[in-house]
Amino acid sequence: MKYYHSGDADEIQAVLRGDGFIDVAVRINGVLKQGVYLTDSPGEWDPEFPDDQLLEITLPQQIDLSEYKFDLSEKPCNWQEWFVPCDLLDKRARVRLLTTDEWKECGPKKGLTSLCAHSIT
What's the rounded Cα separation, in Å, for the pair 41 and 4? Predict the structure, then answer.
């Protein structure tokens, strides 16, 4: 399955250099999570953040991310979200940098224009 992760140029270039992903700690809907934010939709390219870059992440089919998936039952979205430990991604993910044009072309899933309003602090 393909997943997507966006970040600033420094973060994305570090991943591509082989330095790896970096776990971040955030509180999501009141629960502390540590990992890397992934979605199954690339989201919309935002001209207010022109230096952001997008990684397309492919994991082997046998890898089950269900334990890292957000429960979106209270605020359903047209895409899925995960918070995955960086060591799993560093060891098993194949990553590809999408160009800005590719990002704009594949964009969010049909009918989506912004992120769901999950409480991330």
Answer: 6
For residue 69, the 8-state DSSP code is B
Distance CA 6, CA 12 (A): 8
| pLDDT of amino acid 90 | 96
Q: Which of 69, 1, 15, 67 is nearest to 37 (CA)?
A: 69
Cβ-in-10-Å burial (0-12, 13-18, 19+) of 14 comes to middle
pLDDT digits (tens, 9 = 90+) for 31-69: 888 899 999 988 888 888 888 999 999 999 999 999 998
Cα(45)–Cα(54) distance, rounded to whole angstroms? 9
- Chain Cα centroid distance, residue 112: 16
pTM higher than the cut 0.90: no
> What span, in angstroms and rounded, lies between the C-alpha atoms of 93 and 6?
15
**Is it the case that residue 113 has pLDDT exceeding 50?**
no
The whole-angstrom separation of Cα 110 and Cα 81 is: 16
Residues 12, 10: Cα–Cα separation, whole Å:
6
